[in-house]
Amino acid sequence: MTTRPQLVLTDIEGTTTAISFVHRTLFPFAAEALEGFLASHTRDVAPILAEIQAMEPGRPPLETLRAWMAADAKVTPLKTLQGLIWRQGYEDGRLKGHLWPDVAPELRRWHAGGVGLAVYSSGSEEAQRLIFGHSVAGDLVPLFRDFFDTRMGAKRVAASYAAIAVALALAPGDILFLSDIGAELDAARASGLRTCQLVRPEDGTLPVPDHPRARDFADVTSLFGLPSAG
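Above: the chain sequence. Below: its structure as tokens.
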């Protein structure tokens, strides 16, 4: 396929953002603030706690949340709650979203050149908007057409990508999915999306077979004929 993608769908952790930022900054921040946030935002968290109780009956929700956090569980109630906690941290300036230096310039060029942009991450839609809205490169949220989280399905399941293509009203082959994880790329390709693995040495990413590879977003521009500075 020689035509350039109409839309780039990007992962966050390990793709636009250092894995260490998520695991060494965001996760500890949420874990430390958890109990205080639950106590001071009872109305906001009530539906989330009810959902957790339904998923793990007979177990205190706080205990369930701690266990999920320790296991980095990809469950929607946890991701939603983490997003709310992070929003407070971003809004009061304690957090600033990390992006690799190559990311924001290319996103702006792609957007200016008419290529659509969207995000698909296991982090909640709220968390996605925060990391791009309060990033080290400024507010990038206006560049994106849409944000997708695990409500669309698991990232290693092909049907999730098919559902995203339907939501975007695009043929799967018009979408380029960027990720560092081979199983996610495999699932996206199985649904007809084009794929590219970001292999960032700083994150220790291991190359996988059968997918194009890029060192950074500038490489993606070259590989797929996306709009460039010139």
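The chain has a mean pLDDT of 95.
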